[in-house]
Amino acid sequence: MKDKLVTQQRTRTQAGRADDGLGPNTDIGNRLRALYGAVQEEGVPAQLLDLLEKLDSAEQAQKNGTATRDGE
Amino acid sequence: MSAEPTSFKREMLATLPSLRAFAVSLTGKHDKADDLVQDTVMKAWAKQTSFEMGTNIKAWLFTILRNEFYSQMRKRGREVQDSDGAFTERLSVHPSQYGSMDMQDFKKALSQLPDDQREAVILIGASGFSYEEAADICDCAVGTMKSRVSRARTRLQDLLKISGEADYGPDAVSAQVTTSNHSF
After folding, report:
1. What is the pTM of this model?
2. CB distance from B61 to chain A under 8 Å?
């Protein structure tokens, strides 16, 4: 029952997508993706990657109970 | 040992390029987009216990970013809002399959959409979300999301047709001057 409902929902979504004019063969869809893709291809700034590294290592240090003081 | 934080980090890393592209589409400026992504990463990290591994981390991060953007906009008002909208800055990687004038027109058309329609068409058309996911992210009904996308698409088609015709008209330059703001 529940599965069927989910399937119905999915079918409806796909049907909705098919005529939303943004699919692979549409001018607007393709341009949107080209623009978005161009930003994605710029890569992630080093500063952001550093931040994630710091957050992760701080958490690891806390978990291991060794709150190391490395100046940051 | 504890593999979970690492996999949370890994999933976040995988989502960052798309999250950043969405941020650029909201702020219109790369430096502001990067600040916004940074705030989002910190927020998300702080609330990672509320995230269930195996569920949709991309939608979760997009939701946090979008909420953060609008809450900053409410707090700071004009300072954040001074952009011309989506992708107005020169991109360092040019979408190669389109001519630069062509893409310029498209960016301009996109920036003329109301904010809610622009984010809808980007989430569905470019970020790859389903209508249900996009509706969750924007905290609206699925039907609302569908109608925003549909109106955005119609508007874009109209605008692009107009700007195409303007190329042949005598007044193409002055026509461009009037398109620098969000239209409401």
Report:
1. 0.76
2. no
